[in-house]
Amino acid sequence: MSAGKRFREALEENNPLKIVGAINAYSAILAERSGHKCIYLSGSGVASASYGIPDLGLTSLEDVLVDVKRISKSTSLPLLVDIDTGWGDGTNISNSIEKMIEAGAAAVHLEDQIEAKRCGHRPNKKLISSKEMCERIKSAVEGRTDPNFFIIARTDAFASEGIEGCIQRSKEYINAGADGIFLEAITSLQDYKELKEAIQKPILANITEFGKTPLFKDHELMDAGVDMMLFPLSAFRASSKATEKVYESILKNGTQENVLDIMQTRDELYDRLDYLNFEKNLDEYIKNMEDH
């Protein structure tokens, strides 16, 4: 079964489908072990965690593909990937989709900001026209080598055009071939309801912390017609805060003893990675080499 098919099945079987951010392969393993059905690679996560730079469209297709390949090989969960504005126009976007499928991605979201994009919860976002965005979507669809690969159109129009502008753009994006819609920086459940009534297609809500969108609960979003809840960097933020605490404690106290309670143990790590089974296979390999 293709990754795209697994994504569509997860979407059908979960209402709403909770999609959690996994910035690397080990995070993906932890998400799957926790019982989640879908994971996400954030453009901001790639920029921050893999390259130590802001989320301002500075990472390339190849930068993101490195993480996509590592993550998709570590888990059976379908992976949704943030591809920002698609890294170009026309055949460049088609190529991006082909490469994403080859790397193991199940779905992407593509946005309607200008190429010099910024975080969706920051001011002064600049959009391309809906016509230009439709061309991006058509190019993405043309690059789809797996018919089940899921393409989500993200619009950042709410800040400048309101919900009416978002609905109009979303209708055009669906007509251009998008499988679903991602409304960014929405502030009201009513906005989701109005969009659902207008398009009757899968909707993604970005429930990111410390942004413009309230931390709506799953049952609230389900009642509003939302099909997917995105938690792009929740685990990364938590692990980053814990990492700072450990670094600060070692410097201040000369020991890590007082932060052991926030650490995963060695046994827990080995368990998550199936370490002992790998070690057993290694021992058998060494024994066979010695016997010969």
Short structural summary:
With 292 residues, the protein is α/β, with parallel strands linked by helices. It is built from twelve helices and eight strands.
Describe this structure as you would to a colleague.
- The mean pLDDT is 95.
- The longest helix is centred in the last third of the chain and has 20 residues, at 234-253.
- The protein has an eight-stranded parallel beta barrel, surrounded by nine helices.
- The chain contains twelve helices and eight strands.
- α2 (25-33) packs parallel to α4 and α7 (158-176) runs parallel beside α8.
- By secondary structure, it is α/β, with parallel strands linked by helices.
- β1, α2 and β2 (39-41) form a beta-alpha-beta unit.
- Helices cover 51% and strands 12% of the residues.
Topology:
Layout: H1 3-13, E1 17-21, H2 25-33, E2 39-41, H3 43-51, H4 61-74, E3 79-82, H5 91-103, E4 107-111, H6 130-142, E5 150-155, H7 158-176, E6 180-183, H8 189-199, E7 203-206, H9 218-223, E8 228-231, H10 234-253, H11 266-273, H12 275-291
Parallel strand pairs: 1-2, 1-8, 2-3, 3-4, 4-5, 5-6, 6-7, 7-8
Helix pairs in contact: 2-4, 4-5, 5-6, 6-7, 7-8
| Distance linking N and C termini | 40 Å
Q: If you average the pLDDT, what whole number results? A: 95
Strand content bin = 5-15%
Strands, total number: 8
Order of helices and strands, N to C? HEHEHHEHEHEHEHEHEHHH
Quickly give the structural class: alpha/beta
